[in-house]
Every structure is written in C-alpha cells, then in structure tokens.
Amino acid sequence: MTIHPDRTPTLSERLHPDSASALDRRSLPSETIERLLDSDRRCEALRCVLAADEPIAVRTLVARLADAEHDATIGTTIHQLRQRVHVSLCRTHLPLLEENDVVAYDRVRNLVGPAANLSVFDSLLETESLDRSIASRLDCE
C-alpha cells in the first residue's frame, strides 16, 4: 500500500494553476460537471474567470453578472440585484466551485482566479453558448 501525503496547494498555485504540477490536477466526474453547469449564474461566472487574464475581483464579477441579468421591466433595481448576486456568489457558487478545484477564491483579497479543473469547462461552456445561440435563432424563425 502506498501512502500519499495530502498536499494543500499554496494560494499562488491556486491563483496560477499552470504553475502547479500536472500530477496534482484531478479530473471531475461527469455528475459533478453537470451539477456545476446546472446554474446559469455559475456558468456565467466561469466564463468571466476563463476570459480574464488574471484573477478577477469579486466586485467586478458581481457587476458583470448583475448587468447581464438585469431586466428593467422587473421591479428590482440594479443595486438590489447586485446585492443578491453577491450573496449567492459568495455563499453558494464560489465555495462550490472552489471545493471542486475549479476556481481559487481568495476571501481576504476578494479575488477569484482559475484553479486546476477550470480548463475542463472551457470547451463545455463554448458548446453550451453555441447551443443557446442556435436555439435562440430557431425560436426567432
């Protein structure tokens, strides 16, 4: 029997996963991937992190998500929506993504960056985006 010591990655390794050893990366089961993709807000947060060249501030992430979700015809102000987005990101979505090593969430500095498993979602989110745009075109015809 081989004993593998548990190794907690440093913050630097979590915010810059390319510097971590490929052996440290673990794959995610398909059920976990599906669970992580079952929220539009979580998918959009992943797209933002994937598109960023460096760790993104939670405040910036909240603003982008709230602006994308804002519907002027509903009685909710953009400020109220940003508060709701912030709470759901910080209490639900980011901890879940961090637990599965998809993002590195630095609560002290309020930064979100890529982690070892983020690359799994790169092509999946592109495909999902493409599927949605095709579906919306079909609905319009």
From TrEMBL:
Pfam families in the record: DUF7344
InterPro entries: DUF7344
Residue ranges constituting the DUF7344 domain according to the UniProt record: 35-112
Spans annotated as Disordered: 1-24
Protein name: DUF7344 domain-containing protein
